[in-house]
Amino acid sequence: MHDNTTRASLFGRSIRGHTVLTISGELDMATTAVLRDRVAAALEDRAMPVIIDLSRVSFCDASGLRMLVAVRRRADAYGCTVALAAPRPNVRKLLRITGLDQVFPIYPTLAQAMPGRVDACGPAVA
Description:
Blueprint: E1 2-4, E2 8-15, E3 18-27, H1 32-45, E4 50-60, H2 62-77, E5 82-85, H3 89-98, E6 106-107, H4 110-113
Parallel strand pairs: 3-4, 4-5, 5-6
Antiparallel strand pairs: 1-2, 2-3
């Protein structure tokens, strides 16, 4: 899957039992609505732990943070975990300042996020 918005793109793939979503570009008000819908569609297709690769995100504002939280809520509804991988220093700082570094597991690289570090998921239990 490869989708483009004005200044951001999303590429999803399965790697070693994980759904890896790589976001490139800017996460702001102009891009997050479309990305959020595409991420939601990717989560419906697969019932695996999710890793969001942020290594190519150059900018993130409050809209981008809201999108990440929405992704986590949707994944929680499917019984899946969400981890963030490789955020650039400016994005990592924003995650720390807002306290979202306490909400998401954050790994310095995509490789470190995968080897058994994200719990498997299954159907949500009501």
